[in-house]
Write a structure and sequence with these properties.
It comes from Raphanus sativus (Radish). Helices cover 30% and strands 21% of the residues. It contains ten helices and 17 strands. The protein has a twelve-stranded parallel sheet. It has a three-stranded parallel sheet with strand order 6-9-11. Strand 3, helix 2 and strand 4 form a beta-alpha-beta unit. Helix 3 packs across helix 4 and helix 3 crosses helix 6.
């Protein structure tokens, strides 16, 4: 098939997904690929070599996965050549340490998973954070198994889903011991949270909550939020609760989704070692106010026991009700619980054990 025929056929394609097998050879796209006026959705995995000016006039959604060669000029080329771009996804990509998306005025949704800024950070600069400049986005989903990112400008952000870790803690932040990076992580997380003060809907993952718990136990000040709806993907365990309680005042709706027992957050032993290094007694920190909650390991066993599970749910709901002032609805997700509980009967029992908060609607949801 000749180049003209390929170009003619591509001119009718609206959705295209290209997944290349990793190899030593580099595939170079023909020039007509970069001039497609019909493409609306494009996904490219592993390879994207920009050798000419991009002109994707209809492109609305672009997802790049495992692309390790994104340069400053490549990002500018994509943004300037995609005037209708609304959604950008970067999954396991390496690109500019300062990811500047300010030129894309149409961009509203940004999804990033494990983005690393180049050149590879090493030596004394290994804790430098990649920066995101995205003043026009309304939605951000950010997951990093490396370290926090600096949100330079997300001034129009309305909804954000954030977590720091997506893998085992031993693989995080260049494999340095958690005790040595905990201060750096807390600082990075709190700076990131400060940029979310005007967002109305937030979602936080378990490891981020644990980092916030450390900051709370140390008496570090937190930014204030205007958030109306907060979703927490977490365990009902001691190391998560201090961070959660810090977020509760001012909420109207809270959604708590227990994570699966196979999901790995920061190990309790790492958190304890850090607290000990700060001159704090871990046992006193966790158990002085949060002794009704189990450790992470204990919580994994509790979800397999019906009676203990409901006691834990009651403890969590009661903790929430004690720390809220404006809450209207509390939703507790039970989607990872395998047993076939009698939900109706258990729910009635739960209500009998809770403090009187008639103005809060409580929903248990599978």
């Amino acid at each position: 098939m000749g180049e003209k025929e390929k170009a003619r056929r591509l001119s009718f394609v609206e959705k295209l997904s290209l997944n290349f097998v990793i190899s030593s050879s580099i595939y170079r796209f023909p020039d007509f690929f970069y001039r497609s006026s019909s493409l609306e959705k494009l996904r490219v995995s592993y390879i994207l070599i920009l050798e000419c000016t991009v002109s994707w006039k209809s492109l609305r959604k672009l997802t790049l996965s495992c692309c390790c060669n994104l340069k400053y000029e490549s990002v500018d080329n994509i943004l300037s050549g995609s005037p209708m771009l609304e959604t950008l996804g970067l999954h396991y990509c390496t690109g500019p340490v300062r990811l500047d998306l300010s030129k894309s005025r149409s961009l509203r949704r940004l999804k990033i998973r494990d983005y690393k800024g180049y050149p590879n950070i090493s030596g004394n600069d290994r804790q430098r954070l990649a920066e995101i400049v995205a003043p026009h986005i309304h939605y951000l989903k950010l997951r990093s198994c490396y370290k926090p990112l600096t949100l330079v400008d997300v001034s129009c952000l309305m909804e954000a889903h954030l977590d720091i870790f997506s893998g085992h803690s031993s693989s995080l932040a260049l494999n340095i011991p958690f005790e040595e990076k905990a201060d750096f992580l807390q600082t990075g997380v709190l700076k990131m949270l400060a940029k979310l003060q005007n967002a109305e809907r937030l979602s936080f993952g378990g490891s981020l909550l644990q980092i916030m718990s450390l900051a709370e136990l140390r008496g570090v000040s937190f930014p204030t939020f205007k958030v109306q709806t907060l979703t927490l993907r977490t365990r009902f365990a001691q190391s998560f609760i201090p961070g959660i309680t810090r977020l509760l005042p001012g909420l109207r709706k809270l959604i708590a989704v227990p994570t699966h027992i196979d999901d790995i957050d920061i190990e309790d032993s790492d958190l304890d070692s850090y607290l000990d290094s700060q001159g704090l007694n871990p046992d006193q920190c966790w158990r002085s106010k949060y002794d009704v909650f189990p450790t992470s390991d204990e919580s994994d066993m509790i979800v397999r026991n019906e009676e203990s599970l409901w006691e834990l749910v009651v403890s969590f709901v009661a903790m929430v009700l004690r720390n809220v002032m404006t809450l209207e609805m509390l939703v507790v997700g039970l989607n990872h619980i395998d047993r076939n509980f009698n939900d109706a009967e258990s729910f009635e029992d739960l209500l009998q054990m809770l403090p009187n908060k008639n103005n809060v609607s409580i929903v248990l949801k599978r």
